[in-house]
Specification:
147 residues, mainly alpha, 6 helices
Amino acid sequence: MRLKSIALAAVVGCLGLSAAIAQEEPQVRRQSQMKAVGGALGALGGIAKGQKPYEAETVKAALTTISTTMKVFPDQFPAGSEAGSETEAAPAVWQNPKDFHAKAEKLAAEADKLLAAVPADQAGVGSAMNALGGSCSDCHQTYRVKK
């Protein structure tokens, strides 16, 4: 009985360690960051479409998430992380890193600009979505593998 408990504890410990190591992989970090940005854009989109009520704090939180995430996002693409964890990053990320960084910086700057003058209503959030969406689309067309 005691041996089974020890074996079970060892298996659980290894699983926990595997999860911790997986969290450290750049592919996992960047996927997590993109999910956060997607969630932020979803919150803004809900307001812009009138599916959710306008709340300034929600808008600020979403824009802050986009800004802070995009400022560190390009650092999640070190050499050797081109494959694994079902990455959707295109080879162009590593072939043209300056442009990739510039596109991320552009999105962060757009979010910062919107944070400086937070959209005051549903229409303003819709305009913000248009500005942010253009930057997202521009980057995805070049640096994301279409699946």
